[in-house]
Amino acid sequence: MAFVRVARDGVPVTEAKDVALDANLGKRFTLKTDVVVVGSGAAGSIVAYEMAKAGRDVLVLESGRYYPSSQFTEHLGDTMTKIYQDQVGQVNTTADIIFVQGACVGGSTVIGACVMEEPDDAVLDGWASQYGLENLSAEKFRPYLDGVADQLQIHINEAHEINACAHKVIQGCEKMQFSWKPAQRNVKQCALTGHCLAGCPSDRKMSSLVTHLPWAAAHGARIFSDTEVVRVLTRDGRARGVEARITDPDSGAHVADMQVDADMVVLAAGAIHTPLIMQRSQIEDRSGQLGRNLSIQPFTQVLGKFKEPLYGFRGALVGVQVDEFTRTDGFTIFSGLAEPESLLAQGDMKAGKAHIDFMKNYKYYAGVNAFSTDQGRGYVEWSGDAYSGDKTIHWNPNREEFNNMKASAALAARIFFSGGAEKVYMPTFQNLEVDSVFALDETLDKVDFGLKGMYTFRANSFSPHGTCRMGADPYQAVVAPTGQVYGTAGLFVADSSLIPEPMTAPIQWTVQALAQYVSDQINENAHNYFIG
């Protein structure tokens, strides 16, 4: 392959302000391309790179702003208001689950915690046998996972990457004889500042902002930020392009309307927004599964207070994971003390004097994220006009899912007490504090399923998936094994929407391997998709 020079600073991006100043474009304009990729995160960036590298004219449209690494301050409050979806206000119908998503060039890879884990062989072989996805069997799909690992510098945390917060988790696990292991992360020579969720100013995090997007641009891909795709344009049963609007990210002013004429449309906007785009576009869905099967991997933040200062916010954000119960119960616990702004978004920071006291003691805290598995019963839907309507995310726990969340939080509390914690803060709306392991069960009895599990746990989701699931049966799946949407030629999906069932592992590694796989499917069958 010929040598291609990549710009040292930043990614070439056309922003809303550039469009506003370009007299040749005006308030409504049309662009032509071979492939238009919707979304620039984990999946979209890989598709853009692979298509551009194959010689295709590629246009990437990102609804969020362009926020280069040079602007990151490590102040999460600044980042949340600028590049988090809905300013961390993307919630379910009852607003007790926050769906944390990046809204920027690079997507959620820019604000993620860098945790990477690949699915077990049994999971992949299960997809192959149950959903007819033979190319996703362990034997055939693992090379894609290995390729992503090489590109993203995925490695097992070394000793210096495991901070004091993580060591408290280790101590607790050793005393209880729970299995644990160092986490894997996509970081190259981590600077150990602990501010992963605020963006990485040193470019050590191998996000799409510093990997596949500049690589794609080096091969000629064009990237637009501030550009929300409203709908896919179809004609004669085939995707012909997209319709989008460009908005100033600071003022909210409408800048221009864009139409893109393309041979192929690849949706990579994530498990929430990809199905919404398809719903707004009235894409045929013979399966009835579009937007359904939403799985969220709910997790809660459990805090432990220790006698000695830990400064748990220093060092690598995520150091170790507890995998004792992953295969048996679907529980995985990751060390990591959330920044105060993150806790504030969840309502965990108290108020007045209690808040001041909480912050005075922050150096004594350790934290974990306690994940549990859900059953994929949620769904997303768009209501109203394509331009003025709104999204709704439906997910509330049934009793089994509620008990899973409760059990994973209880295990986290026991680990902290075994590690020497003098107090544990439970992630509940009741603001429950536990002073002793002997009082834990009695305290947890107060956490009741109540009104269908609502307003009990302060929970989050980093990893929604499954809303356009892939499968060989067009009456059970939205997307064919090639990545093409059933019933609409030239329309592909290449993000977490494809995952056919709830996963226990963090999904980014899998998603990026799926994007690579879909890209290969397109390139290997290019004569069926492209004119000329």
TrEMBL record:
A Pfam short name: GMC_oxred_C
Keywords: FAD, Flavoprotein, Oxidoreductase
Protein name per the record: GMC oxidoreductase family protein
The Glucose-methanol-choline oxidoreductase C-terminal domain, residue ranges: 375-515
Similarity comment text for this entry: Belongs to the GMC oxidoreductase family.
Location of the Glucose-methanol-choline oxidoreductase N-terminal domain: 36-298
